[in-house]
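An instance as discussed:

___
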Amino acid sequence: MNVAGIALGPLQTNVYLVWDNEEEAVLIDPGGEPEKLRAWISGLAVRPRAILLTHAHFDHVGAVAAAAREYAAPVYLHPLALPVYRRAVEAARNWGFRIEPPPAADPLPLTEGGFVVGPGFTVLHLPGHCPGHVAFYNRAAAAAFAGDVLFAGGVGRWDIPSANKEQLQATIRKLFGLPAETTIYPGHGPATTLAAERSGNRYVRSWLEASS
């Protein structure tokens, strides 16, 4: 599995292009700066066939409209994230940013345990930071594109609208049911592994210990 990433948009969201071959390339969380995104993809010489969204916060959907037009690519999102998706422009404005409205047509639905276009991804429903939050997990590659639920040294925020700390704690416990060697590609910051976060992430340690 090939993984290329770049941080774009007002909150430096990680955008990933992932592929086994060019017919299966997917773009994950195109968060902003569509012209930079287009130039970056052009340099990789791989055309995305679909756009996958871990969740619908404005900093993860700011370049969805431009990417969908440029690559004639369908967009996939968990149905529970649709209300946030539809309010993305307003949410960005409340933070002092402007984004192009994401496509008006509802994205194609993602479901827990289902497979999605791309290099062998299974969908994991991981709510808590945002309703309908998912990760894209490739068991063979021991990799998960986990959005904003887990970071190197941290976890997703639960003090924002529609977030829920108890759900996020359950999500962390679910995520750590995956093999320890699993690489986590987060929505912000550097990649990490479940093993590294189990030993070095104080939130993870506390929440896992509380459940044991």
